[in-house]
Amino acid sequence: MQVPLYQAKAEFFRMLGHPVRIRVLELLQNGPVSVRDLLSEIEIEPSSLSQQLAVLRRSGIVVSIREGSTVSYALAGGDVAELLRAARRILTELITGQSELLAELQQADPQPALTPGGANRYS
């Protein structure tokens, strides 16, 4: 039985839904990074990083590269980096819109002054 596309997309985004996995993907955007360097950048326990790398590897979004005793990870394709850039653009637009709305709200309805007892002076 084939999984509907919307369900496959939901599972894909669920796989991305962990801060450590997102951070790993961000660090891999510029090329392969060793596990040692990932650990120093992310500052988590090695076992936790290993679990998150395994999730990414099983999904096919990253690949491992062994050179002697050093293991590095790399993005399996360039589309992941584009997805992260798109997420950054979307978040920037959302946050910009929220800050503009906040400024508008603050200008439209100034807060009444509070008296020392905490009630506003109009009570």
TrEMBL record:
Source domain of life: Bacteria
Keyword Transcription regulation listed: yes
Pfam families linked: HTH_5
Keywords assigned: DNA-binding, Transcription, Transcription regulation
Domain HTH arsR-type: 1-95
Statement: the UniProt record of this protein carries the keyword Transcription: yes
InterPro entries listed in its UniProt record: ArsR-like_HTH, HTH_ArsR_DNA-bd_dom, Metal_resp_trans_reg, WH-like_DNA-bd_sf, WH_DNA-bd_sf
Name of this protein: Metalloregulator ArsR/SmtB family transcription factor
Organism: Streptomyces phaeochromogenes
